Amino acid sequence: MNEFMKKFSLTKPIIQAPMAGGITKPRLASAVSNQGALGSLASGYLTPDLLEQQIKEIFELTDAPFQINVFVPLGLEMPPKDQIKKWKENIPLANQVNQFTSVQEEWDDFYQKIDLILKYKVKACSFTFDLPPEDAVKELKTAGCCLIGTASTVEEALLMEERGMDIVVLQGSEAGGHRGAFLPSKGESAVGLMALIPQAADALSVPVIAAGGMIDHRGVKAALTLGAQGVQIGSAFLICHESNAHPVHKQKILEANEADTKLTTLFSGKEARGIVNKWMEENEQFETQTLPYPYQNTLTKAMRQKASLQNNHDQMSLWAGQGIRSLTEEISVKQLLNQLCQEDIKI
Amino acid sequence: MNEFMKKFSLTKPIIQAPMAGGITKPRLASAVSNQGALGSLASGYLTPDLLEQQIKEIFELTDAPFQINVFVPLGLEMPPKDQIKKWKENIPLANQVNQFTSVQEEWDDFYQKIDLILKYKVKACSFTFDLPPEDAVKELKTAGCCLIGTASTVEEALLMEERGMDIVVLQGSEAGGHRGAFLPSKGESAVGLMALIPQAADALSVPVIAAGGMIDHRGVKAALTLGAQGVQIGSAFLICHESNAHPVHKQKILEANEADTKLTTLFSGKEARGIVNKWMEENEQFETQTLPYPYQNTLTKAMRQKASLQNNHDQMSLWAGQGIRSLTEEISVKQLLNQLCQEDIKI
Questions:
Q1: Which of A299, B18, B160, B193 is the most buried (most CB within 10 A)?
Q2: Which residues of the sequence carry a binding annotation for FMN (chains A, B)?
């Protein structure tokens, strides 16, 4: 049992990725935690009230540790009006948006969620999109909460460690969904795990967790061989029975292959990997002109919601990683965890 | 000893990547082969005469098997004159180019190289850029030459197997230098090895070799765990004493980190991963407008040659993979192979 597993008394070195947008709910997270891996709630798009409801619910379903993931606000100011106008004209239903969440409101939301994590003594809190602010880090650490940061390069991972993270999740280029990259880089900040894990493991003192493209025991063993202490799995949990992902999203993952995904900013303004669909194809030439997160995200919200209601994959965000060729049937969390940890893993 | 190692009586499951452009010469390839791994000559930018010279030379230096890599011509017709004119105006010294190699000349060059491989009974021939033509495959196989194809997706790997390849090299997104992708894909055809290896190993019957971002024994072990029978290493051999790479290229790799590289078409017209430099930065907005290979390559040749002569990294192609943070000193091929196969690898 390594340091990461010891922290949570895990029997499996697996984290279920905190997939926001309604995919991850207490049912999925508790099923994972009850099997000896670390389940996750994703608070990113939840109001504090809804998060509190989910926390209460998960405590009914499991006594085992779980984590809550929080988006760190980027604090980017409103883009120029003409850019907003252009996108409002281009994105279906975007003209319904009358105002955006202010930076202050984003931070209020963030701190209300931190307060809930403290109030309910949640065992672990993970951060995505940026370094968490020092005051939140201090409060959570004082309360004994284990802190998990997300990094896509060694430089980012080192900053996360310096900020007080107890564990750093390394997001490989293979990973589906939003990228956690927060530093400018000279080249591509999306680095394959085969290269990223050993370079980060050598540089950091805290345990690193590998995220991206792994779907079975071979990936888990390879990541541990490369120096990770655990593996974070997204797409493979997304298609589980217990996951609340949209049936069309699940179906698209079951059908898709490894070269069907790409990184796009067209849905949210922040780079994320998803299965290419009509919205991405039709707007490819505008990839570099999207509004920064969360503005683009706010404008595409009604379009995505309508697409969900109509089971229309053309305008949904079909987040998925590069391991999806091997995902061909919906199984249970228990079955998946058995595939991931088929035999004893020596660590 | 697995099937791949048996084919060449190797003691180490390692291929030295065939890096064209003067990096890989008989000295490097023979040093690798003499240590029980598979050395490679890169015929891509050599004339048949120069290739023959290198073949004679390597036979003086080793009795062990080695391979020769051949570029498969893409056969793309000349781009429109106005596009050529635009690039001639933009690329330093490009106005020296009066004519391009014709598609027929490219094929003549290809078949002359195949004839040399047959004449000298070279043990293995690898192909990059496309499926090799059926007549060449047939001739080489009849002569007992082991054929190695390059693929970046499972679909490409399956086509390579179908075409008669005995081994398929899976080029992960981590890999430096030119991408071997040859099929259009819905999303990104650059897939991380962590996802690519198991998906391809499950689909293919012939041995697969992993290429990209690996620099030490952890990467080798992880690749074998994922289902590869061997590992192809580029950047780490490029900086070896025995490599003929430009000293500035070596130095840049020794200094660079994992997020300093990106895929670019600006040097050759074909996507390749290299350390970001001034030429790439200044022309970033033209990435999607480059001429197809080999036309862009022909136009940048004089610029690159002058940059090499002047030790000017701003206009050289600094090909490198994503594992380069860990490469910090020039070592010998023997030292590198000991790092890659530190202990016995059970396969």
A1: B193
A2: 69, 171, 176, 213, 232-235
Can you read off the two tokens belonging to residue B241? 């004493």
Q: At what angle are helices B217-226 and B333-340 packed, to 10 degrees?
A: 50
Taking an 8 Å cut-off on Cβ atoms, the answer to whether B153 and A225 are in contact is: no
Kind and range of the H or E element at A59? helix A48-61
Q: What is the DSSP string of B104-126?
A: HHHHHHHHHHHHHHHHTT-SEEE
Sequence-ordered list of residues with C-beta below 8 angstroms from that of A199, at least 6 positions apart, any chain:
A154, B258, B323, B325, B326
> CA-based angle A68:A181:A15, to the nearest 5?
35
Report d(CA B269, CA A269) in Å as an integer: 29
Task: Check CB contact under 8 Å for B325 and A199.
Answer: yes
Put simply, the answer to whether B257 touches A214 (Cβ < 8 Å) is: no
* Tally of helices (H runs) and strands (E runs) in chain A: 14, 11
- A217 touches B at CB < 8 Å: no
Backbone angles phi, psi at A14, to 5 degrees: -125, 135
* Adjacent-strand bridge partners of A115: none
- Retrieve residue A193's tokens: 């795990």
Across A125-161, b (16+ Cβ under 10 Å) vs e yields: bbbbbbbbbeebbeebeeeebbbbbbbbbbbbbbbbb
Distance CA A93, CA B205 (A): 50
- Residue B342 has a pLDDT of 79
Could you please report the per-residue DSSP string of A217-265?
A: HHHHHHHHHHT-SEEEE-HHHHTSTT----HHHHHHHHH--TTSEEEE-
User: What DSSP state is assigned to residue A72?
Assistant: P
ipTM > 0.90 (yes/no): yes
CB contacts of A214 in chain B (<8 Å) are 194-195
List the CATH code of the domain at A3-76+102-253+328-340: 3.20.20.70
- B321 is annotated as contributing to ligand binding: no
A-B contacts (CB, under 8 Å): 168
Residue B283 has pLDDT above 80, yes or no: yes
What is the pLDDT confidence band of residue B168, given thresholds at 50, 70 and 90?
Answer: very high
Distance CA B152, CA B271 (A): 12
DSSP-H helix ranges across B3-47:
3-8, 26-34
Contact A251, A153 (CB under 8 A): no
Instruction: Kindly give, in sequence order, each residue whose CB lies less than 8 Å from that of residue B225, ignoring residues fewer than 6 positions away.
Output: A218, A221, A222, A225
CA distance B65 to B236: 21
Query: Would you say B75 is a known binding-site residue?
Result: no
pLDDT at position A224: 98
Which whole number is the average pLDDT over B328-336? 97
Q: Name every chain B residue with its beta carbon within 8 A of the beta carbon of A188.
A: 259, 261-263
Rounded CA separation B319/B173 (Å)? 13
Q: What is the dihedral of CA A249, A250, A255, A258, to 10 degrees?
A: 80
Name the fold adopted by B3-77+100-253+327-340. Answer: TIM Barrel (3.20.20)
Residue by residue, what is the 3-state secondary structure of B184-252?
CCCCCCCCCHHHHHHHHHHHCCCCEEEECCCCCHHHHHHHHHHCCCEEEECHHHHCCCCCCCCHHHHHH
Cβ contact A143:A120 at 8 Å: no
Hunting for tokens 């310096």 — which residue is that? Answer: A162
CA distance B202 to chain A (A): 9
Query: Minimum mean pLDDT among A74-78, A120-124, B255-259: which range?
Result: A74-78
List, for residues A218-231, the tens digit of each pLDDT value: 999 999 999 999 99
Residue of B194, B232, B289, B319 to mutate for A, most A C-beta atoms under 10 A: B194
A214 in contact with B, Cβ within 8 Å: yes
Structure token pair of residue A322: 């590069």
Q: Can you tell me the distance from the alpha carbon of A13 to that of B93, in angstroms, rounded to the nearest whole number?
A: 56
